[in-house]
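for the writeup, i need someone to sanity check this before i put it in the appendix. the sequnce is what the collaborator sent (i think, or maybe the updated version? ugh). structure was predicted straight from it, no edits. if anything looks off just tell me and ill rerun, i have time this weekend
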Amino acid sequence: MEEKRPSEKAGDVPQKTEQTPLSQLRWKDRAEAAKGGLLGFFIGLAVIVPGVSGSTVAILFRLYEKLLCALGNLLRAFKRCAAFLLPVAVGVVLGFALGFFAVRGLLQISPFAVIALFAGLMAGAYPAVTDQLKGERLTLPRAVLFAAGVLLPVGMCFLSLFSSGDRALEEVGGAQYLLFVLLGALVAVTQVVPGLSATALLMLAGYFNPLMQSVSLSYWSENPLVFAVYACLLVGFAAGLLGASKGLSVLLERKKAPTFYAVAGLALGSLLTMFFNPEVLEVYRGWAEGELFAPHLIAGVLLFFAGACLSYAFVRRGRRQSAGKN
């Protein structure tokens, strides 16, 4: 009679591996690939709307660790990772395009209502982040990580209020291009770390509005050197995306609970900054000076709760699917 291995003793429960293997980087069907496209769509929007975190949506869709694995191993297993990332990339392009042409327009009409809608979506999705901490013991170091996570986006947003204002892209030259490589890398980090906002970072650096305003044929014809700025941002973004994804994958593999305590803090802090950033403070200032605010406030409250209910419904659906697999 063959002797049982220690891991095969009666009553033992097979342990789940925390690492996402490359062999699992595939879409089971078109519906799952469409979910990846929707994830990319929100990541694209995150560049436009202050406080929106595409990574939080990835956690909501239970694709976060797979996404990090695909990005972190893109050079190692290009074909498999690229096939997995293709629907996400298409969604990113569509989300950015819609955000740039439509959402930015809506932000001009009723910024508070639009931001409240996205804040509601993020608030309703927050339990998807805290679900990762079920069964984990709250220790002092983990509490410190959570608090630091809350304070980081809040601190970034607070500092952006005292930034020196928008910087001119026309005056960039020499070693300043290296700063755009670094800025691109930091923007990439905001895309894979839940709770960090690329918009808040660019506002802090003073380049959000100049970059948004530079996307026009007339600007390109008058300032062709802006494409050098775009190139530096892309180089930094690519390097930062690969490096940050690989680093986070290692952290989640080795220190998943502490990492998610920090992530939970970042997500909460980011939610707070959606109502406390330079663009929204301009709205509050206008209200204080006598601008009509009641319709915008009422619409914002209603859209916040609608967004929260919608995203929380996705959280509950994900919980049921997860329970069904277990």
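The chain has a mean pLDDT of 83. Residues 150 and 305 are 22 Å apart (CA to CA).
thx in advance!!
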